[in-house]
Amino acid sequence: MEVKHRTARSLVKKLGSVSEITRSEALAELRLMTKNDAESRLIIAEAGAIPYLAETLYSSSHDSQDNAAATLLNISISSRAPLMSTRGLLDAISHVLRHHATNSSPSAVQSSAATLYSLLVDDSYRSIIGAKRDIAYSLIEIIKRPNSPPRSIKDALKALFGIALFPLNRAGLIDLGAAGALFSLVLKDGRVGIVEDTTAVIAQIAGCEESESAFWKVSGVKVLEDLLDVGTGSSERTKENAVGALLNLVRCGGGGVMREVKEMRPGAVEGIKDVRENGTAKGKSKAIALLKAVEGGAKKWDFAV
């Protein structure tokens, strides 16, 4: 154990070197250590590496930026508190994400978005990260950009999902244009994994009063109806997410949403019934609640789950 502490202190000291080669070599070693040895992650954090790593996210060297972002991601898996207590870390991550289309390395963008998702596993950090509108805006811009790498899109979606898990963040995401970006992604990207992750975020942001108007502008209920229709061949996870989104809309929206839901075509209703019969336990309960609304047998407050 003492050897690991000495190694960590030595490498962190090298991060402050005036030699770019020395710093680069130390970054590469730290990345490998945190990847291969979970025990070393906290040791490296306690040795003072995080401020240096955060500063390196501003580097014009893609190799250095990549190694710093990957090391932060690895540390976040085991030790979230040291990252969140480091002043300027979220600003550094925001910098990488903001420049996703220009100066930032694609790998650093992916690692930075994944780091956010890792941090957002802790619900106490969701309000803090969600309050950083520049981060949310950049994540939305990543999924909007036509030539964003698939991995960047998936990591951005996961980070947005983590932000949306905190109810008070949802209106902010709507205000930043998340609904339009998400539904556009569903319509333009046929890859199953992307559609599943996108609809998971849609289901979360549907859970606020502001969602009704935003979904209305992009024909959101119709898109969700199409995903549920048994003829479209959507995956079970996508259909469960669509059910969850519609249920949240009905719970948070007004009479317009209720009318749209009640007027869904038979194929979509069959999709809800399929989730009721074959979905996960959560999916089944949501489908049962949504069917009450579709069939008109319940008041708005009867189907909270």
UniProtKB/TrEMBL annotation:
InterPro entries per UniProt: ARM-like (IPR011989), ARM-type_fold (IPR016024), ARM_PUB (IPR058678), Armadillo (IPR000225)
Keyword Isomerase tagged: no
SMART domains named among the record's database cross-references: ARM (SM00185)
Record keyword rRNA processing present: no
Domain U-box: 12-295
Organism domain of life: Eukaryota
Alphabetical UniProt keywords: Repeat, Ubl conjugation pathway
PANTHER family the record matches: ARM REPEAT SUPERFAMILY PROTEIN, U BOX DOMAIN-CONTAINING
Identification of the protein by name: U-box domain-containing protein
